[in-house]
Specification:
Elements: H1 3-30, H2 38-46, H3 53-68, H4 72-85, H5 94-105, H6 114-127, H7 134-144, E1 146-149, E2 153-156, E3 161-166, E4 183-197, E5 200-212, E6 217-226, E7 236-247, E8 253-262, E9 268-274, E10 288-291, E11 296-300, E12 304-308, E13 311-313, E14 316-318, E15 327-332, E16 338-343, E17 347-348, E18 352-364, E19 367-379, E20 384-388, E21 399-401, E22 406-409, E23 412-415, E24 421-425, E25 435-439, H8 445-450, H9 459-470, E26 474-476, H10 477-483, H11 488-500, E27 504-507, E28 512-515, H12 517-526, E29 536-539, E30 545-550, E31 555-559, E32 561-565, H13 573-577, E33 579-582
Parallel strand pairs: 31-33
Antiparallel strand pairs: 1-2, 2-4, 3-4, 4-5, 5-6, 6-7, 7-8, 8-9, 9-10, 10-13, 11-12, 12-15, 13-14, 14-17, 15-16, 16-18, 17-18, 18-19, 19-20, 19-21, 20-23, 21-22, 22-25, 23-24, 24-30, 25-29, 26-28, 27-28, 29-32, 30-31
Helix pairs in contact: 2-3, 3-5, 4-6, 5-7, 10-11
Length: 583
């Protein structure tokens, strides 16, 4: 054997011996208290001069418990905890002993759970590096009935409780050998949990409350909160929380199985949320509730109704639901006519119903006047419906009339439900910008050319060709981009242009494209394979009331007609019978 190799073995042997002896010494240092000397160690401390009376009381109670209430395994686990806390030999375990004394002397621990209780703490002290003042904090919570005391919120309760080890806690904590430890939990029954935050307070009455101090969460069952919200549409009384949780770090309360009770409606199933940090300058508790479904019927001033969800957020009342289905605002008019306006959510204030994005449909027998995306304002006290076409992805998109077979491009439509006339007009520069009306058979090479991008790709032709090749009218923007061998982001602008001009429907959140008949009409007209016309009207009016739509007589009246173009392809005599112009 070579000398260098022998030297390496000798060096390794010395290192292993040093490690072994160091670990032995370290282990002995940690194990200064043993089953044989526990009582004597504490008695020696009691006899020490200047020992505080409260500590003497703790040690005497601990000796009594040691001698009369613990079996051998429970003593081993107790010493494991004590020696882990006593790593500097400075008796930093007094708060643990006081905690153990309080639990056992007051019979707070559920029956036959002492060994699980001690095993839990002996493991988390080793595995989770608890704060040095952990047991001091736990004692403070018990003695003051205080779960949490932070700058933003306080939670406290004055009822008795029991301590248990939950073997199926909200979160799983693991021991050394992947054995589930469960979690320590304080269990309360029939309690009133007082929640105090910087801007107010409220009480949760509940059948059962579970406080997990190490997981920093409270779980409850069958909770009840006084939930007082009042406007002209709903007057709430209380909310029941079948199950709920409170995050002790931020104070948030969450329940996905809540029931809202009011004087107006049967109980409404939904979810509940409270955030103490959102309460600033509110003057009241700002609770949030959202219904699970949109099957609630809300009567609007006797002239309309909402079929919708219900969402209350602070002082705001709106109609979204967890189902994600659209709410419907319905006006029933004379002669079986009706207006249906759909939105993901309507906001209801004292005198107004509004939505930044709503779908408008006026139904008259088999015909309709339709727009896919408008800003809505319904002034309830004056019964005025205002629809604006100025913002959003579909701004300047036309209204579609199947009775007149036209598109109407205007900034707004005003209507008082129950009256005869709908008014269309221009808001921005009305003396310069006209309202445009075009036949649904209208075709323009200019529009075709404007849909060609800088790379020479015409998005309308590409969309139609993809639909024909794959024999389907609905697909995703990623499918179209793959067909064009390009990135989806590079064609999104073109897709939005198709959507805005009524060639497709497009769901920007999912990327779903639905090809509409106008795409086929334009494509075939471009190839001269389809009849088309160039019927169009342009109306400029300084008063901005460009078009009046008489829904009873089914006529349109134009003010200030600037230009009329008739088809070069074909004439249709019935077209003029439905139109009247004034100068």
């Amino acid at each position: 054997m070579s000398a260098p190799l022998s030297l390496k073995k000798l060096t390794l042997s010395l290192i292993l011996q040093l490690l072994f002896f160091d670990n032995q010494s370290f282990s002995q240092e940690l194990s200064i208290i043993k089953t044989e000397n526990f009582s004597s160690v504490l008695e020696n401390k009691i006899n020490t001069e200047d020992m505080p009376e409260d500590v003497i009381s703790i040690y005497k109670s601990s000796i009594d418990i040691w001698n009369n209430k613990l079996n051998f395994r429970e003593k081993e686990l107790t010493l494991s905890i004590i020696n882990s806390l006593n790593y500097n030999n400075n008796f930093e375990f007094n708060f643990f002993l006081k905690y153990l004394n309080l639990v056992l002397n007051n019979k707070l621990l559920r029956q036959n759970k002492l060994q699980s209780f001690l095993y839990y703490y002996s493991n988390i002290l080793i595995n989770q590096n608890l704060d040095d003042d952990y047991f001091k904090i736990i004692l403070n919570k018990i003695e003051n009935n205080l779960f949490v005391d932070s700058p933003s919120h306080r939670l406290y309760n004055d009822k008795n409780f029991t301590i248990d080890i939950d073997e199926a806690p909200p979160f799983v904590s693991m021991g050394y050998s992947d054995q589930t430890l469960g979690a320590m939990v304080f269990v309360f029954s029939d309690v009133e949990l007082r929640y105090v935050h910087e801007y107010g307070s409220f009480v949760i009455k509940t059948n059962q409350l579970k406080f997990y101090p190490d997981l920093k969460v409270i779980n409850g069952q069958n909770g009840q909160i006084n939930f007082l919200f009042l406007n002209k549409y709903i007057e709430t009384e209380k909310i029941n929380l079948n199950n709920f949780s409170i995050d002790l770090d931020n104070g948030n309360i969450i329940s996905n199985s809540a029931q809202l009770f009011s004087k107006n409606y049967k109980k409404i199933v939904g979810s509940f949320y409270f955030d103490p940090l959102s309460q600033k300058d509110s003057g009241s508790n700002q609770f949030t509730f959202q219904s699970s479904f949109n099957d609630n019927e809300i009567i609007i001033s006797g002239v309309a109704k909402l079929i919708s969800g219900i969402t209350i957020k602070g002082n705001n009342f709106s109609t979204s639901s967890k189902s994600g289905k659209k709410s419907k605002l319905i006006f029933l008019l004379q002669e079986n006519k009706k207006i249906i306006i759909k939105s993901n959510s309507f906001l209801l204030s004292e005198n107004e119903i509004s939505s930044p994005n709503s779908r408008f449909t006026f139904l008259d027998d088999n015909d309709s006047l339709y727009h896919p995306s408008l800003e809505l304002k319904y002034i309830t006290n004056s019964n005025q419906l205002q629809l604006f076409n100025l913002e959003g992805a579909l701004k300047n998109t036309p209204f579609y009339s199947t009775f007149f077979d036209v598109e109407i491009i205007s900034d707004y439509m005003y209507y008082s439900p129950g009256q005869r006339l709908m008014n269309f007009g221009i808001i921005m520069a009305p003396d310069q910008r006209p309202v445009n009306v075009k036949s649904l058979n209208y075709f323009s090479e200019k529009i075709i050319n404007e849909l060609t991008d800088l790379n020479g790709v015409n998005i309308l032709k590409a969309t139609y060709n993809y639909a024909i090749k794959n024999k389907r009218l609905d697909f995703f923007i990623d499918d179209l981009s793959y067909f064009l061998k390009t990135n989806s982001g590079l064609i999104r602008g073109g897709v939005l242009s198709l959507w805005r001009q009524g060639f497709i429907n497009y769901d920007s959140s999912s990327g779903l494209i639905q090809v509409l008949p106008k795409t086929r009409h334009y494509f075939l007209s471009h190839l001269k394979r389809s009849d088309f016309d160039e019927y169009s009207f342009s109306s400029i009016s300084q008063s901005s009331n460009n078009i009046k739509y008489d829904i009873k007589e089914k006529k349109m009246f134009f003010e200030g007609v600037d230009k009329i173009t008739l088809s070069k392809k074909k004439q249709n005599g019935s077209f003029s019978k439905r139109w009247e112009s004034t100068t």
